[in-house]
Amino acid sequence: MRKLLTIVFCWLICVAALAQDAEPRVEPPNRAEEKIPQVVSFTQAFPDFTPPFYSISIEPTGRAEYKSTPKPDQEGDPYVVKFTASEPVRTRVFELARQLHYFRDNFEYTKSRVAFTGTKTLYFKNAKEEHQTSYNWSDNPQVQELTTLFQDIEETIELGRQLEEKYRFDKLGVDAILKTLEQEAKDNRLAELQAIQPILSRVAKDPNLMNISRRRAEFLLTKLPKPELATTVGEQ
Fold it and tell me: pLDDT tens digits for 198-229?
């Protein structure tokens, strides 16, 4: 009897092992196949401009990055600012990208000669596809709107960079930069001021600066985009 029980027990163990081997093995996910974030980017390359090269990338979640280099062809130490794009801006960027068929077409103006103002490139990428279009100038209204928006972001961040440098090395020069920022804000030429909020806050709270400089910084802080609940632009 004991011998029979031993045989039955061994048989059950073998059956269990075979059943386990028959179960499908779940392999860990391949990181390379994970979903690539959707992103719209803009670059401008113009040797006669300061900076001669810059790029701005925005994702539907609001994650955004600005990068510029002191020399053409993306050479030199980059200046990088990471920020969260405001909901109206990221919504508009992806809506315009959709209207432009995600940059599948050529938007360069070719009917007559136009002064060169730099090579501009709009770029779209998601998990399935990527497209880009380059131009010097375009008469397409959606392309013009996107170009102006990205150029306003560049101007805002670069003025913030100048403000940081003056604040560190030449406090007497701080007010001139703030005056420029103030006028640009009144002319609605600034975009995504939250990207330079840290330096504006430091200036506004610094008792060693002139009152007029602190008041200008306080005025600019009132122009920051209103806080909003986290939102995500719909996928293509």
Answer: 999 999 999 999 999 999 999 999 999 987 64
What does the alpha-carbon distance between residue 56 and residue 100 come to, in Å, rounded to a whole number? 18
3-state helix, strand, coil in the chain (%, to 5): 45, 15, 35
pLDDT at 15: 44
Kindly report the three-state secondary structure assignment for every residue of 171-186: HHHHHHHHHHHHHHHH
Domain boundaries, the chain: 39-221
Strands (E), the chain: 39-45, 53-58, 63-69, 79-84, 119-125, 130-135
At position 115, the amino acid (one-letter code) is A
% of the chain residues with pLDDT over 70: 81
Instruction: Give the integer Cα–Cα distance in Å for 129 and 187.
Output: 38
